[in-house]
């Protein structure tokens, strides 16, 4: 035993120990230098380079060429396969032998045709254990393959992580050798590093930190790296320290292995498939070696990829799921963005996810897991509860730039009052390493200390995958119960949340959305992806509705359930939190656009098929089938397709479709070969009629022009545009009420400098508001477009900058309560932000924004830091600023970024960030927004149906056969507060004849309503969002009506069993 230390110098003692374990200094004589013993090169190394991501069987049959350590390979996104022939020296019998492999890129070791371990320098995995102890009779020669992807854990950014990828990057293999591994040295290193962590973490005011430091110092004294026989004494000193316990009151940290894998981000979707394999196969190995280690894994899509590409690995994951070590969490298809997906999309995330987890792993997830997403909709608690989930975990709000979120464990109450138990790991990360510093932070930063005594601790390399390492597991095991530190358990989400639920009596409640005060640019970045999302949500809605009607009406029709599931999964995949948000590289954006194109083209085919089925079997004229896919009557002007690709205007008027009175017969409907057209009065419905326009429609709205300005008037609203296209007046005709603020102009385009601090595609900063520059047009650019008839319009051009221009058609239709702005922009900017503003003659301290299945209010002032931190917010199809008796609503067809400050409604249109996609948003864009002044409340004025109408145009589908002879409505709802959102075939549908209906209360009121249907319904029963029948049994169905009762913003789902078809 060494002499007691004679000197007392904190720093020299601490640094002495640091040098003893340093991988950089004194490795010739320190302990770290002894981690590996003898080594020898691999017997033979050869390689094969390919731009493809080949399956193993195909890859190993290629022509491998001799290779050596030091060789370069690449470029970015290619793959280099290495064949590694190795022979372990006989002299190493009895030793632990590793393959030490260091290369750039991400490696995966294959042995006997199966993946066995990931190898990445960045993920601290640089050796593969060939044998724990080489036996005398063990085979000493074998062949391995290492598949190296030419990208790092976090992609291949040129110069910085989020810069656009460098396509020319080259990669190198710097080590490939066999070596003897000294397990006893490794254990001492783990202990010494923990002791150093305790000494530093607890600091010089704490007596336990001195005990840790002097224990470590003593270990260095007794330990001679060159003499392994000295190790046990040192080891005993450490064990004595870590074995010293403390009291029952200690905080418990639930450590769970995790590996956040962004489904696509700085790398393409296809690389994620391999990231999953590399990460999880390593996890399998850890689970085998550490039976107490538990790994939480989210995102059904990733597991589905592994199921189809690596069936052997999938089977292992299922096996460990049975043992409770591999725990599927989250319940969703991907970790989707928490703001932008529609309510129905969010339901489908859970429906597809939970069904997958149940099918493949035998049970559904009981916690919603979204650690890395940019804000959380206030409607999520209700959706979660109805999908069998009462628990929620994230940590992203720790990224708030302005306000520090006040809780780590709390009840989160949603829009309708539903509550879930939410936990934010107090260490503010999902990628912990198992250090003492992180363990101490988890307790110190916990804002609910004293209220609950449990915290989550998610460890493992994340974002680009990688996951936990054996060292992390060993550190955490060592800290299970040591005086001076919180208790650490290798635990599971179930154990954590059960413990939290046991102490929930004192927890606080947070009501409403969890708004992330950062990344507000993601509501706008990559406009085409946003547009694709909105459009495809509509297409799938319409396809499901029409297919359901076809199913009900036609005995021959086969509901396209499998194809619809595929299309939904594509849409859900694009809702991943770095895709729909626009924060991905160009390669991903291109793939996402292909996904949308698939949905569009298949969707249109499915719509035609459903239309054909609806038109079959009944006598009637041929022509067009006009379908209203919304649950209320619509009186609208619509463009009707004509041969040769042209359009003419028609109008659905109640139950009739009218030709445009402004057109001569040769352009009008009369010239159609089949003059009888179908129109849609109430949804979902179809009717046949052609008629003349009533006289009073024929005369308006005629645009008038005085002094270069244009006035459009449809008898409901009167719009006045100045000679540059700005809105100088918007009057509600009946009351004469002006909606534009006095002395101000609306439809004012404004340009901002948009240079964030770091996260280019993600962030728009508060200070951008200080750079506002109105875009001024030239007088005389305004022209009358369509002159009178059922539609009036004006048109103008606007030069935004020397490089970017805009053209806009301002359209007012007969009978329409809003004026539309069809906008085309050619956008070529760098770090600029384009918005359009409407100063309203309205005063209110709060504005209303549509969210999933409802709406919420946010302040229009900057009183407190919580108010001004929401200088840029998100909305779905509409926002509204109302005072008592009057308001102005701004609708849109594909935008999400918005704000209302004071009386100015502002819609965010286009950004121009350059990282991680240098090309994002450059080029041509088309979008529509609309302005609707109204009296009364927005609810009573019909802003919500107006926004639906803008987003769900009436469908005019060619009817291949005789269309139904009479107008026909499938469903109607008696209350304007209740929206029938979705009609689809039920997931489980005996003989395929059960429909699922989803309705929600949209006004924020308690409402009773009658749902009426003309379909032959045999039985109706409520169900949850996963379509599980409500135990209360069937609803009373009389005269094809049933009564439903809603609480504010409540979502209800209903299963309708259709009567069997007559023969
Ligand atoms: Zn992420």
Structure description:
With 1063 residues, the protein is an alpha+beta fold. The chain has 20 helices and 56 strands. Strands 35-36-37-38-47-44-43-40-41 form a 9-stranded antiparallel β-sheet. It has a 6-stranded antiparallel β-sheet with strand order 3-2-5-10-7-8. Strand 40 (846-851) and strand 41 (854-859) form a beta hairpin. The longest helix has 30 residues, at 586-615. GO terms for molecular function: alpha-mannosidase activity; carbohydrate binding; metal ion binding. This is alpha-mannosidase.
Short description:
By secondary structure, the protein is of the alpha+beta class.
Give me the side-by-side strand order of the main sheet.
Answer: 35-36-37-38-47-44-43-40-41
Largest sheet: 9 strands, antiparallel
The unique ligands bound to this protein are:
zinc ion
* Radius of gyration based on Cα positions: 33 Å
Number of strands: 56
- The proportion of residues forming helix, as a percent range, comes to 10-25%
Alpha plus pi helix count: 20
Q: Based on the structure, what is the oligomeric state of the protein chains?
A: single chain
The secondary-structure class comes to alpha+beta
Inertia-based shape: elongated
Family: Belongs to the glycosyl hydrolase 38 family.
Keywords: Glycosidase, Hydrolase, Metal-binding
Pfam family, one: Glyco_hydro_38N
Organism: Bos indicus (Zebu)
